[in-house]
């Protein structure tokens, strides 16, 4: 299941209205960080990353992503190889960065973050997060 919100592109230039100005600043910074910077990835890896960010919670197979990008899966693999990265690397890096942002900037539970990042359950999310950072999500959130 995916939730989507469609609106006229003209609204993009309107300032965000939030009851809490800090929430507004945080949301704007998160958008700038994720959309304005490919974190070292260029080319096809950046295209994959943008596509994933445009569809929150969507982490498709490489075949599905290739179809989304209108190229053959083998071509996608070759282009990623030329950038010295794998599809799995791009997915893992994005999941990790999103998890860190959710833990730092939201009050989402581990279960909610796990669902948002397409993990089968919170235990799998906690295990992956600990592998990435050396800390549990709760320890990371505390500081």
Q: What layout of secondary structure does this protein have?
A:
Blueprint: H1 21-35, H2 43-54, H3 62-68, H4 73-82, H5 87-105, H6 110-116, H7 122-133, H8 137-142
General description of the model:
This protein is mainly α and 143 residues long. It has a single domain (20-142), classed as Arc Repressor Mutant, subunit A (Orthogonal Bundle). It has eight helices and no strands. The protein has helices at residues 21-35, 43-54, 62-68, 73-82, 87-105, 110-116, 122-133, 137-142. Helix 6 packs across helix 7 (122-133). The radius of gyration is 16 Å and the shape is globular. It starts with 20 loop residues before the first helix and ends with a helix. Residues 42-143 form the HTH araC/xylS-type domain.
Quick summary:
With 143 residues, the protein is mainly alpha-helical. It has helices at residues 21-35, 43-54, 62-68, 73-82, 87-105, 110-116, 122-133, 137-142. The protein has eight helices and no strands.
Largest sheet: none
**Count of helix runs:** 8
SSE succession: HHHHHHHH
Number of strands: 0
Provide the CATH topology. Arc Repressor Mutant, subunit A
CATH superfamily: Homeodomain-like
Show unreliable segments. none
Strand residue percentage:
under 5%
Shape: globular
The chain-level mean pLDDT equals 85
Q: How many domains?
A: 1
> Structural class of the secondary elements?
mainly alpha
CATH C-level label: Mainly Alpha
Pfam families: HTH_18
Keywords: DNA-binding, Transcription, Transcription regulation
InterPro entries: Homeodomain-like_sf, HTH_AraC
Protein name: Helix-turn-helix transcriptional regulator
